[in-house]
Structures are given as structure tokens and as C-alpha cells.
Amino acid sequence: MKTLLLRLYPARWRSRYGDEFEALLQERPLGPFDVADVLLGALDARLHLRGLGSSSEHRKGFAMSLRIGGIAAVVGGILWFSGLVWGALDPADEDPGILIGLLGSIALLVGMTGLSAFQARRHPALIWAAFALPAVGGALATLGLMVMAAVGDQPVAGVYGWGLLIIGMLATIVGSLLFAIATYQTAALPRSGAVVLGIGAVVSFVSFIVGSGQGGSSAWIVVAAFGAFALGWVVLGLQAIRLDRPEMAAAPA
Hints:
Layout lengths: L1 H6 L3 H16 L5 H16 L6 E3 L8 H25 L7 H24 L3 H28 L9 H26 L4 H22 L6 H26 L3 E3 L3
Antiparallel strand pairs: 1-2
Helix pairs in contact: 3-4, 3-5, 4-5, 4-9, 5-6, 6-7, 7-8, 8-9
């Protein structure tokens, strides 16, 4: 397994860091977050292959997912909210807002995985608990969007795509609040980003519950509240990207 994970990295990367990284892999059993971290690290290494002249302290530990996790959180938050706004402006079943929202949900799952992997080394039990609910919610929301994109408002095996979407969105929001609390406690990422995400999650959840009882008149209030939730992920993602940058240093000649 560890040999296979190592071979996912580019040959040039392995020739430079392979022995050191293999020794690191042998130090301890790999957990699911470690595997996710290594997979995202391999993708990162391939995307930045030309940048091998710059070495990163990341190769000394399982922190390779930080950059990709941050980027995915930013992209996911923007796409998730954009799809929601597009769907509110043009609620037709075939409008591109569904696809945009689907891509945003997938990106948020990647971002959540990457940022969870980065923090899990310090408080694994806490991060596992905080990761589980938003991950399940994100998966349900993604499935709901896929069903809606495929069959519109028609049920599949008695299940409506919009029902899965709503359940998934609420689970993602509540889970993101837990994720924000866990992030605040671990302090592995800046606490200000965790606060923004937590506030956005609370505002969006309360607005959705209250707005559901008031009909279409409150639709844009709910959309705006969801924007606060998406902003929380964008802020946390940007902070993760900025946190990654100081660790980059020029490699010795």
C-alpha cells in the first residue's frame, strides 16, 4: 500500500524526496486521513512539478493537503453559492445552476478532506467527529444535485433529488458548525476563519428554518444567509493557503 502511494508521485519528485518520504511512511500505521493527505499531496506535486526548485517543509510531514484543501474550500464556497443564486434566478430544472452547485459540493468535500487531514494529526478523534457529518451531508447534497440534473423533479426509487439536496445542505451546514468548533479548538488554522465559518453556519441554518415557514417571500433572505455560510469556507480556505506560503523556502543549490 505504502509503495503504491509513493509511486503516485512524479518520478522527479521521488528521486529527490522519495527515500525521506518512504521512511516517513514507515514510521507509523496510515489512517484514512493520512491516505487522503498523501493522495492530495501527489496531486499537488504533479501540479507543481516545475516548482521542484523550491522545496517545502511539507515533505517532512503529512501536511501536503493544506494548499489543495484551502483552494478547494475557496472554489467550493464560491461555486456552491453561485449555483444557489443561479437556481434562485432561473429555477428551471435544466438550468446550469444545478451543475455549478454540484461542482461546488464536490469541491467542498475535497476541501473538507484536505483541511481535516491537516488538523487530524493533533486531535484525531475531534476532527473525525467534526468531519463525519459535513462529509455525509456533502455526499447527500451531491447525490441530490446529480439526481436533479439527471431526471429533474422526478423521483428515483421513491426518492426526490430536492429532498436529498435539502437534507444534505442542512447536514453540511450543521456539520460545518461542528467543523468550525473543532478548528477553533485545535487552532491548527487561524481561529478567525473558524469563527466566520461558525457564524455563517448558524445564520444560514436559522434563516433556512425560519424562511421555510414563510414561503417564497423570504427566499432571498435565505440565499443571503447561505452566502454567509459560503463566505466562511472561502475565508477559511484563504487562510489555509496563506498559512501554506510561509513554509515555502528556497531549496539549497
